[in-house]
Each structure stands twice: as structure tokens, then as C-alpha cells.
Amino acid sequence: MASRGLSLGILNDAMAAIKASSALDPGTNPRLCLFPLRLGVDAQPPQPPVSTVPVTIHNFPTLEPVHLEHWSVQHLYLPLRRDILHHAVVYEGDKTRQGSASSKTRWEVHGSHRKTVPQKGTGRARRGDRQSPLLRGGGKSFGPHPRDFSSKLNRKVYDKAWRTALSHRYRQGELIICGNAMNLGLPRDFVLAPDKVLRDGLRESYLEKYMRGVMDRLCLGRDYGRTLFVTSERRDVLFEAMGLVPSEGVALDMDDVDVKDLLQTGKVIMERAGLEELLRRHQSDLMSNVVVNGLVRPPPAMGERVLWR
């Protein structure tokens, strides 16, 4: 009897060991097949997050690539936030409203406030003075008055909306950065000849034809959604040429550009100096006022050249 009990105990221990080994076998346990264990040298180290993105710098007006730069993801690779962009566009639209519409009430209309007809005895409806809103030339009931339509938006939210708009155009491949000034050269005859010698409209017709040719050759015109040119300062010839072909695009100084302008056209061509200045103006959410050991955390770098011709 004792030997029989001992053999049963050994058998139970063996069955328990078999069950434990089968639980660790991926072939018999489906959970281990779905989530395999990575042990030893098979384990992959975690990859660091991406901190920079490549940006190609072009030459204007041929848009020939010149060199490659690395820019921070906090500047040109933010995720799309439609809510922030909506708040920024509404905020800019409210600021542009003049709110100067004004109408006169019955107490502001010039004239006598005497009752025009007797209250009773005429058989007609009751009528007050000539300033009544019911009469022609009278005051306006609940009419518009000068008011301020501007709304409020946190500066950090607005700055992030700027960089979100630029990041969206960069992700779509619709942001073109030019390293040189976006100037358009005129033929030597236009420069040397006085204005009185040139025929009326000759300069304008040349600029219009030249700009349409550039836009069509580079696929930037109306058929491709128009193009926005953003310069760091006013370029007279470029601004004049784009003013002659408004259906092909628009040229703006960086001080006149807002978030809505960056999202309207098919492509955005911007000078590198203008992009750097705009990012410097709109990075308040990336800067910290906390001082540690007399130092303040600096904002991300604007761009680092890594490859050039």
C-alpha cells in the first residue's frame, strides 16, 4: 500500500511538470504565439524619436535644388491639428472686421419730435413723430452700431497654429524653400532705356508673359491651385508681375501673411530668411522662462546644412 501511494505521488508530480512545460511551449499555447518573448540577443533596443527632418533648399526662379538642411520637427513636422487651425483662422478673421457699421435710432434722427397727427378723430392708425421706425426716413430699430469683433486666443496656441500650417504644407510636399532672394530680373533694354522711350504697356506685357511662362513651366499656376510667394522684404518686380496675373497666384511680404494665407493656395514658395524670421516670431510655446543654474532652455535650431552641391 505504501509503495502504491508513493507511485501515485510520483505520477501526480510528473503530470504537473508536463502541464507546466506545455504552458511555456509556443506550439501548444496560442497566447505565446501571439506575443513571443524576446530574450537575450534577439531583443531590439528602442529607437530614439525623430528630432529633425530634411528640407531641400532651392534656387529661384528655376527651383533647382542647391543643398539639404535639417530642421527641427517642432518647426516643420508637427501633427495636423484642425482645431488649432480653425481657432487661428477665426481669430484672424475677427481681427480684420472693422465693425464700423452704424445706424441712427429714432432719437438720433434730425427733426421735430412733435406728434404728426392727433391720437383720435382722424379714422387712421395711431402715429407718433416723424422719427418712428415705421416711417420712411425714420430711425432704425435694433440697427448696427460700432463694435469690436476681435476675439481672444492664447499666444502659444496661435504660434503653434502657425507651425502646424507650415508642417502640413511640408508633409504634403507643397512647401518650397528658396535660399536666395526671389528677385525677377528685367532685360537690359528695360533698365537702360528711359521710361519716355518705352511704349505704353510694353513693360507690363513683358512681365505678364514672363510670369505666366514661369508658372506654367514649374506647374505653379491656376491649374495647380495657384501659388503663394512669401518674401522677407518687398521685391518690387516680383510683386508687380504677380499683380498682373492674380489668377496664377499672389506675392506677399512676410509681415502680411497669416495662417489662412498658408492654407489657401496649392503651393507655398518662401524665402529661407523669411521662414526663419516667421518661426522665430512664432515659437513662444517652445521657449521656457524657467532658469536653471542661470541658464534658460534655448529654442530648437532653425536649420543645419548637411549636404550641398
UniProtKB/TrEMBL annotation:
SUPFAM superfamilies to which the protein is assigned, alphabetical: Ribosomal protein L4
Keyword Ribosomal protein attributed: yes
Stretches the record annotates as Disordered: 96-148
Compositional bias ranges of the Basic residues kind: 112-127
InterPro entries to which the protein is assigned, alphabetical: Ribosomal_uL4, Ribosomal_uL4-like, Ribosomal_uL4_dom_sf
Pfam family, one: Ribosomal_L4
Keyword Ribonucleoprotein: yes
Coiled-coil stretches: none
Keywords: Ribonucleoprotein, Ribosomal protein
GO molecular function term, any single one: structural constituent of ribosome
GO CC aspect terms: ribonucleoprotein complex; ribosome
Bilayer-crossing regions: none
Entry's Gene Ontology BP terms: translation
Family per record: Belongs to the universal ribosomal protein uL4 family.
Name used for this protein in its record: Large ribosomal subunit protein uL4m
